[in-house]
Amino acid sequence: MDQPTARNEPVPDPPAKSSAEEPWSVDSVLAALPPPLPQTGTTSPIPFFHLLERLKTTKREGWRRFGIDRGGTTCPILDPEKGNIFVKPLSPESISDHMYRMSLLTMLAPPDLASRLNIPHCTKMALIHDMAESLVGDITPVDGVSKPEKSRREAAAMDYLSSALLGNVYGGLVGSQIREIWEEYEKSETLEAKFVHDIDKMELLLQMMEYERAHKGTLDLGEFSYAASNIMLPEVKVWSEEVLRERKAYWEGLGKQPGSLEVLGELRHQVEEYYGNGEA
């Protein structure tokens, strides 16, 4: 299938199912999983470990709308037996891909900011913040799920992970800590939470730029540049501005102007209403 070109509209999503027609629940997700289902109430963390695989296999949906799951992104691979290089299609990043790079970004907070942060706590938060998506999936502003409904689903998923799967593991301490860190991120009140929200957006900007380069100027992902305007901390803004300058120079080198959310009309309203400053 042909890939969308710059300025093309993204591949449309199928109509979203009404939550009234098919209410979302953790049980409904678990019922659709292949057996065996995770064992609950056990003192072993192994069922939790297995469920985490879903973070490795669940893709970030925003990229899929632009056809990135159809083999448009490629990378050179060396065949160790034949010694030749072949091109392999890349699928979109997974949720765990996103959180892994975020965790490393937290470790590189500029010194003036790092001195005011609990960096190990930020790294934990980066690794936990999207954990609910192992059951909920990656919901985007155009999926027809309201922000309150998204929050309800994610809270229910975190309750299941932290209580049903981890409630009896080591006295439930780790499960409680994971739930508390996730809630801190959601409230976005502490400096650590605000920093990790900014890092979430920064990682998105990096991936946007990298997919555009991988598609050699045939795919404009300017819709995602909204993230830069919602970065709050000046130290992270410096990073985002550098990436946007890099992006502008790349597109101008191709004789084109990069797209942005400014020209996307109603989509801009949807995105800003859904995320807002300080949230991701």
Descriptive account of the structure:
By secondary structure, the chain is mainly α. 51% of the residues lie in helices and 4% in strands. It has a two-stranded antiparallel sheet with strand order 1-2. Helix 11 (191-214) runs parallel beside helix 13 (234-253). The longest helix is centred in the C-terminal third of the chain and has 24 residues, at 191-214. The two termini are 32 Å apart. 30% of the residues are buried. Residues 1-8 and 11-19 have low confidence and may be disordered.
Provide keyphrases for this structure.
2 strands, 51% helix, disordered N terminus, 4% strand, 280 residues, 14 helices, mainly alpha
Please list the strands of the largest sheet in the order they lie side by side. Answer: 1-2
Sheet/helix structural class: mainly alpha
The percentage of residues in β strands lies in under 5%
Order of helices and strands: HHHHEEHHHHHHHHHH
Largest sheet: 2 strands, antiparallel
Principal-axes geometry comes out as globular
Distance between the termini: 32 Å
- How many strands? 2
Number of helices: 14
Range of helix content: 40-55%
How confident is the prediction overall: mean pLDDT? 85
Radius of gyration, whole Å:
20 Å
Low-pLDDT windows of residues: 1-8, 11-19
